[in-house]
Amino acid sequence: MAGCNKPQLYLTTIVLTVVFLTANQAVEGRGKGLCARTAYPKLCRPLVKGSNPRLATLSTICSLETKTRREIANASKYKNGNKQVTICHEKLRDAAFNLKKAKYSLHKRHTKMLGIFLTRAVSDYGVCVNTFVDSHQVNTVQNAADELRKTGTNCLFLSTLIRRSNRRRKRSNKSLRS
C-alpha cells in the first residue's frame, strides 16, 4: 500500500458512503412510488396508483371533492349557533369551488392555475382548522378539515411533479426537432 495516505482513504470512504446512501434512497423512493416524498404518505397511498403524476393528482382531487362535499353536509347540521362551524362551512364551500377549478385547470393542462387553485383549497382547509384551534374547540368537523388539509397538501405536491414532467417532455421535443 505504498501510495495510499490517510486523507485520501478518508475522502474515498466518505465518497463511497454518500454514493451508497444516495443510491439506496433512490431505490427506496422508486419502490414507494409518487407518495414517498409527500408530506403525508399514509394518506396518499390509498389514493394514488401507478407512477403518472397527472393521474395521481386527478385521483386525489376527486377524493378531496367527495370528502369535502360530505363535510359540507356534516357542517351544515351544526352551523346554527356555532360561529366556528359556520366559518368552517363557508371555507369548505370555498375549497369545493377551488377544487372544481383545479380539476378544470388540470384538464386544460394549465399547471400554474392548478397550483393556484390547490393552494387556495389547502388554505381554506387551514382556515377552517385554525378557527377551531383559536377557540379551543375540538370536534369532528375540525378533524375532517385537518385530514382534508393534509390530503390537499399531498395533492399540491403531486401537482408539482406534473410541471416537472411537462418540462422534461418539452425539452425532449426540442432536442428531437434539432
UniProtKB/TrEMBL annotation:
| SUPFAM superfamilies for the chain | Plant invertase/pectin methylesterase inhibitor (SSF101148)
Please verify whether the record's keywords include Signal. Answer: yes
User: What stretches pass through the bilayer?
Assistant: none
GO molecular function terms attached to this record: enzyme inhibitor activity
Keywords (A to Z) from UniProt: Signal
Source species, domain of life: Eukaryota
Q: Which ranges carry the Pectinesterase inhibitor domain?
A: 26-158
Tell me which SMART domains the record gives: PMEI
Q: Which InterPro entries match?
A: Invertase/methylesterase_inhib (IPR035513), Pectinesterase_inhib_dom (IPR006501)
Which range is the signal sequence, renumbered to this chain? 1-29
Query: What's this protein's name?
Result: Uncharacterized protein LOC108826765
